[in-house]
Amino acid sequence: MTRHIEPVISDRDPLLIYQAPFALNSKVDLARSMPSFLPEQQTPSTREKREHFVNWEDTLEKCIKSIVSIKSCRPRGLDTEIPGSFTATGFIVDPERGIILSNRHVVSVSPITAYAILCNYEEIELKPIYRDPVHDFGFFQYDVSKVKFLNIPGIELYPKEFLFIYLVIIILFFSNDAGEKLSILSGTLARLDREAPSYGIGEYNDFNTFYYQAASSTSSGSSGSPVLDVHGRAIALNAGGAQSSSSSYYLPLDRVQKALTLLQNNQSIPRGTLQTTFDYMSYNSLIQLGLSHHIEKRLRARSKQLTSVNEGLLVVKSVLPDGPASGSLEPGDILLTCNGNLLPRLFIDLEENLDNALGYKTPVCMVVSRAGELKEFSLQVQDLHSITPYRYLEFGGGILNDISYQVARSYGLSLKDTGVYVGAAGFMLGTALALRRSVIVGINNQHVKSLDDFVSIVSEIGQGQRIPIRYYSLSRPMKTKVMILQTDWRWHKFRMAIRNDQSGIWDYTSISTPLSKKLSSVKAPIYTIKDKKVDTSSLQDLKKSIVSVDCYPPFVIDGLKNSHSYGAGIIVSMDPPLILCDRDTVPVGISVISLTFENSLTISADLLFLHPFYNYAILKFDPSAVFEAGIEIKIASLDDSNDFNVGDSVNYVGLSGRSEIDVKRTTITTLAPIRTSETAPPRWRATNVEAFKVSDGNLASQGGIFADDEGKVKAIWMSFSIENDRRDQSSILGGLPARLVTPIVNKIKAEESLVVKGLDVEFWTLQISNARLLGVSNEWIEKLKEKSQCPSVLYILGITDVSSLSGRLLKPGDIVLSINDKILTNISDLVNFSEHDQLDMTIIRDGQEQFLSVPTTQFDGKETTEVIGWQGMLIQNTYASAKEQAQKSIPEGVYVSCCLFGSPAQANLKPGIWITEIDQIPVKTLDMLLEAVKPERINERQRKKLNSHKLNENVLKNQENDAIDLLALPTKEEMEEMTVSYDESHIQIKFVTADNVTQVRALKIDEHYWPTWHIKKDESSVLGWKMTFSS
């Protein structure tokens, strides 16, 4: 993953570029290649002159075996990092121990699973063993015994201390540039004292070091590639590139070499810090800061006697509050000595002093010049590793970690009792809008200073409680917010992970929740309305039938795009207590729903029914808490006797955008079909429904009701979800006639089975004139005119389920004249057939009148009630909208609705597919999938593959000798090798796309970060759901 950056702005001298093109098989004379503008004393040494005839072709052959392509997944995003799959580069620096050098942002401070692909396409698994807290380098390690077919020489690190600020070195960049297996770019290093590139506020940034720069135009995938001299030695490490120019930036290897040596000796790598950033300034700038002229003169004279030529010193750029240097060092201080010595190598000498002081547990003594005055400070050094993330918390699907030095430095924060950083919000934190890059400082009216505080507080919060949470966004650190967080322990694990550098993984420890402790004490709600007057008698009473509804789906299923939806709810019954809302507010069956009454009380609700066509959901709730709070409830009495007519003046009562109740008069202007289109990804949409429009547009409303002067509700004003021209989710508002709602409400009251019957087709209207051209006879046209003053003809616009009986019998373009001998003139007529098992239809197809008996499809109003999480995929049964977008036929398999970032699935698959086989095992249902992906079943299949070598004589009949040798059974020695090196972590997945294209991909299994889980609706459970998590 190349780190693209904006150009680094500096007032220093411009970069001097020397163009020296050459062929890869040519010999380079370094002496002649030096630019003429360099002073005479800056020519290469005598030794380099003797060795300047070197062939680049030899360098290529030597180094190419040690450069690897790294493919990795970052399953969790901590600190400044985000989860995802990416490719990068590394090179082997110790072939005996299997150590690979790459960038810190490749090795990651977050969990990572990675493997390397060698130049001969062998694949080896990697484990991260070190990432520097500050500088952009880190190390992977691999098992050297796993490399079977390649001798790896390794690349020598050559952190040469260049003598001059302006020096031209002709180099090659070896990388997996832009995802290619191997790219070789040439370039010239010049100006070796460049400041570290800036990747932006809140991102990972290197500091307290110099960088090299060259115009090499490296791009994505080149991170971690070596910069080689003509002798094949690594002199720098590629780190990042500018987006708007060809400049690339390279990390010198001084600190890398020291860290590698300590790793090779099995020693820890001490890293000390004063929580202070230093900058390099030249003498002209130092004089402006108060450096005495006599000190400058002495430093310049001393510099000429040393091998390192410096034209400046280090200056304090920033100091974090409450850090080791806080109250001592100040920005603008010029660093003169450290522990009684000068710093001729500047950053290198400074960090060596800090690291040594940490190892010996002694302070450092610094002398600085502050506005011309010399000051001395003795400072205690802090362990840099202790303020770099080494643990994280999984909470409600989100990721939390202690604030790191990187984040604190970027925003100037103190690291003392500063709160908890949100790496990913997930479900629970998302209910309070505590998104990524937020800092939590309090929860449940208690202060949060660290991750331990957070765990101890939330562990005691019960299921379903709503608690205050205090946090601020790092983009606006002075604006602390207090929001309400809804706790729901049902959907995700609660556990802590700690990094293990020996194994390369993060070890999990599960944390108990109140859900597991007090499960038996949770009681099912009891609904009662004893002695309560709830009938409406006036328009003012209708205001008490309106509530606010909030919906938080815990998973991305059924094509969802939003993690929070809200709108108005209408109380339509109190025996039992029922609320009606639109499906733009409650879109899916797995949701956490809350109701707010009069902006003064919030309670939970459960989903009871989702209508498959008419855009409404029905919720149930326990009104006990509402009555206890003294809140008055009224029922909106639905009147389905007759609809409003166009031109009628009606009373609107609804919820405004400010969640206040509005009452106003408006006029019905039209009753027209709601036109929705297919979405990407497939998402539920209203079909075959008409709605009222009014003269006041959308009424600035979240939803409400239309009533006559007697308070009878004849229509519900609701939001219909659509997708606009930019493919963004949007909505339109319309009034749904009450007669489309009352059949289901009456069934619930009568405790009847909630089943809706219908056809798997989408209807639309056609003008009579066009229908005549398509074959509708004059006789039928007269019948249509007799039934309606403004008749239209219904035709089938599309098939919504090609697998159903109605979807197979009917075809797009069919004109439907009558159903069960009843003539159709508008889409609302279809509601009359929602109880029929079979419909006798008269249609016009290709100009010919036909009679069909078409079975209807039953819909139970529950939709998706079961989801499996496997390897980062959210897998479910095929839902209606996905069926609608399948071409030709609906695959027999399970549907992938989402692939989470950083998962094995994201690296190999994409959502919107049907998995039909796993390792040649059919998976037509979710139960079959669960059985196929059990670890013991996978291991069993892998063992069978290893031992299933059988010779098919028919295959060998038409083969030549070489081919016969290739296809022969493995020898005993080959079987032993296979047993040792066999990879049991890959499985084969066969899937089908919506275009009915079948493909096969290999998936690398990761049960550690992506264990299998299964959630299913369970009416017998006190929680309403049965949750199963694999260990």
How do the strands and helices of this protein lay out in sequence?
Layout: E1 3-5, E2 27-28, H1 30-33, H2 46-50, E3 54-55, H3 56-63, E4 67-74, E5 84-94, E6 99-102, H4 104-107, E7 113-117, E8 123-131, E9 138-141, E10 169-175, E11 183-195, E12 210-215, E13 226-228, E14 234-242, E15 247-252, H5 254-264, E16 272-273, E17 276-282, H6 283-288, H7 293-305, E18 312-319, E19 334-338, H8 347-360, E20 364-370, E21 373-379, E22 382-383, E23 391-395, E24 398-402, H9 405-411, E25 420-424, H10 426-430, E26 438-443, E27 446-447, H11 451-458, E28 466-473, E29 480-486, E30 495-500, E31 505-510, H12 514-517, H13 539-542, E32 546-552, E33 565-574, E34 577-582, E35 592-597, E36 601-610, E37 616-621, H14 624-628, E38 649-656, E39 661-673, E40 690-694, E41 701-707, E42 713-723, E43 729-737, H15 742-749, E44 756-758, E45 761-766, H16 768-773, H17 778-787, E46 793-799, H18 805-809, E47 815-819, E48 822-823, E49 838-845, E50 848-855, E51 857-859, E52 866-870, E53 873-876, H19 880-885, E54 894-899, H20 904-908, E55 913-918, E56 921-922, H21 926-932, H22 935-947, H23 953-956, H24 961-967, ...
Parallel strand pairs: 1-14
Antiparallel strand pairs: 2-3, 4-5, 4-7, 5-6, 6-9, 7-8, 8-9, 10-11, 10-13, 11-12, 12-15, 13-14, 14-15, 16-22, 17-18, 18-19, 19-20, 20-21, 23-24, 23-30, 24-25, 25-26, 26-27, 26-28, 28-29, 30-31, 32-33, 32-35, 33-34, 34-37, 35-36, 36-37, 38-39, 38-41, 39-40, 41-42, 42-43, 44-51, 45-46, 46-47, ...
